[in-house]
Amino acid sequence: MSGTKTLDKAITILKLAIDSRRPQNAKEIAEAISLPPATVYRHLAVLEKQGLVRRSPQGSLGPGTELIALVDQGLLHRLLASAARPILAEVSRKLKMISHIGVYENEMVTYLVKSEPEGQKVFTRENEQLEAYCSGIGKILLAELPQQDLDAYLSTGPFPALTDTTITDPEKLRQVLVLTREQGFATDNSEIEPGLYCLAVPLRNLEGEAIAALSASCRNVETYEAEKDRIRKILTDAAVKLRESLYGRWVTKQSTSARD
């Protein structure tokens, strides 16, 4: 019976923690259900570790990123966009490049946020979908697909050439995606638009699955090649910062290498 009572307490605490009608902190929950604060903190720690509860910097509680992902992809995307916007603005400031975050859905890339430094423009739009096979974000997310899903995607090729360097052959794209998965980042060498170069890294959830990707793009190939290592580092640091914002203190340092 003790196990059942413990589960009952945890579920009650979870329901109060994710109740959007009145955001509460741990102390208020303890008072509401007449439990010692230490007991509530202990249960909340487990729920937060599993991504079911999320704690704001002010201490108020709400639904965790993993819970949101299970019940509402649209809400997850809005959460990603909100958390990513200031981080991408900083990426663009540091690199003086255009930055994006995008997700893979329905065999396309949906761009959630775009950050453009002054004087730089690119054709992408927020909440717009583009093909996955010819972009940095698309390739890193394709590389992370389960084998069956990737095979299904590649079976829709050959793919239309958007530029002279677009990879249109499914088997050649497969080889590129294998390398992409091994190295932990993707590149777009003027494949979606002539003269536009891009590098992208994954954003992973608590299980190590790529749920989105961050990218930086520029139109100067010399700058892009010379700065590639720095671009990757700044994007990787941004992905770590965003992951910590989404999942809290339980996140260990993110690796952009392939999952085990």
From TrEMBL:
Keyword Transcription regulation: yes
CDD domains: HTH_ARSR
Alphabetized Pfam families for the sequence: HTH_IclR, IclR_C
Domain IclR-ED: 66-248
GO MF entry, a single one: DNA-binding transcription factor activity
Protein name in the entry: IclR family transcriptional regulator
Superkingdom, natural source: Bacteria
Keyword set includes Transcription regulation: yes
Domain HTH iclR-type: 4-63
Keywords from the named record: DNA-binding, Transcription, Transcription regulation
GO terms for biological process, alphabetical: negative regulation of DNA-templated transcription
